[in-house]
Amino acid sequence: MATAGPDGITGRVLKACADQLAPVFTEIFNLSLEQAVVPSCFKQSTIVPVRKKPQPACLNDYRPVALTSVVMKCFERLVRDFITASLPDTLDPIQFAYRQNRSTEDAIAHLLHTTNSHLDQRNGNYTKMLFVDYSSAFNTIIPSTLTSKLEVLGLSLPLCQWISNFLTDRPQTVQVGKHTSSTLTLSTGAPQGCVLSPLLYSLYTHDCVATSNSTTIIKFADDNVVVGLISNNDETAYLQEVKNLERWCQENNLLLNVSKTKELIVDFSTKQERSYQPLNICGTPVERVDSFRYLGVHITQDLSWSCHINTLVKKARQRLYHLRRLRDFKLPSQVLKTFYTCTIESVLTGSITSWFGNSTMQDRRALQRVVRSAERTIHTELPDLQDIYSTRCRTRARKIVKDLSHPNNGLFSLLRSGKRFRSLKANTERMRRSFFPQAIRSLNQETPRI
After folding, report:
1. Distance of alpha carbon 330 from alpha carbon 364, whole angstroms
2. Ranges for the Reverse transcriptase domain (predicted)?
3. What is the pLDDT of residue 450?
4. DSSP-derived pairing of the beta strands 134-135 and 262-267
5. What pTM was computed for the model?
6. Peptide bond into 6 cis (omega under 30)
C-alpha cells in the first residue's frame, strides 16, 4: 500500500471508502482538467533524502524522493495513461525506460548488438561508449520548455497547461527523521516519486537524438550512452555528437556531470597501436575507464563477463548465509525455495540474456556452484542457469517479434517460407553467441513457429 503523503490519507482509506469517494474525486479531477489547475493541496510534497551510497559524503549522494498525496497519484495515473495513448509508438524508439515491453535488458542488448555488429564488419573498426551522467536530471526540467515540446508532439493546449500548472508553484518540505524544514515553493523540475515524472522526463528528452549514421544515443531514463562506431580512425562524427549533446543540454537546462561521465573504448584490432583522441566536455577531460557498470551490468573494454560474474557470485554467496540461517529455523523447503528465487536466483540471472551467451565455461561453473550450494541447503532441485537463459531468450525474442515498434523488431525477418527467421551474419564467435543471433536460432528450433 502506498505511503501517505503530506495530507495523511493512506491508500487503505481510499480503498475502503472507494464507493463513497469515487464520485467526489471524479468531479474534482474533471474540474481540474477543465480549468487546467491542480489544487495546491495535491501539489504538496514531503522530500525524503534517500542515500545513493552506503556512506554519503555530500548532498549529491542523496536522492530526493517526494512523498505526495495518494489521491494525486491516482489522478496522475489517469493523466499518464491518456498521454501515453495519445503518443505514437515510434516516438523515441531507443528510450527503453517507462515503456511497455522495454527493460534494462533491452537497452543493454541493443548497446551490445550495436557494438558487436560494428566490430564484426571489418578489422580496424572500434567503438567508443560515452556513459553520460546528469546532475539532478529530473529536478532541472523547465516547465515552459516541456510544454512547448508537448504541443509539438500533438498534445492539446489545455492538457499542456494542466501539466505546466502541475509542475509550478509546488510547496515542498524536507523531512529527515523527526525534523521537518520550512516550506519552499518550487517551479522547476519534476519531483522524483510522482507518477507522471518519469514519463514527462522521457518526453522532455525525446529530441535528444543522434545526428549521424555512425553514432547512436541509447537511453534508459537519464542513463544515456553515446555510442560512436569508428571506422578508418575517423572520430569526427563521434566528437561532433558529443558537442551536440553538450549544446542540447545547455539549451534544455540539463547539467552534465563530467566527473561521473566515463568513456570506454572497445577495440579488438591487434595489427596497429592506436592513439585515441582525448575527449573534453565543457573544457574538462573525460576519464577513460576499462569497465563501467551500466544498468547493473559490468561492461568491460574486451566485452568479457568475468568481472560481472565475479560480482554476481560474491553477492549471491553473501545471501546464501541467510538461506542457511532460515534452514536452521526449520522453515519448509518451499519457503526456502521462494527465498532463493527472490534473493539469489534473481541476482544470478539479472539481464542474463545479455551476457550469459558470451560467458566462459569457467564463469558458468562458478555461477552453477552457487546453485548447487543452494540445492544442498534446501534439499530441493533448483532450475539450471542454462535452462533459465534459454527460456528467457525465447520469451524475450517472442515479445520483440510481436512488438512492431520495438527498435530491434527488424532483426527478426522471416524467410520466404514464412516458417523460419533469417539468421544474422556473424563473422566472430563473439557475435554468434550474442543475444540476437542466439534468440533467432532458438526460435528457428521451435515447432510450430510463433
Report:
1. 31
2. 31-299
3. 47
4. unpaired
5. 0.92
6. no
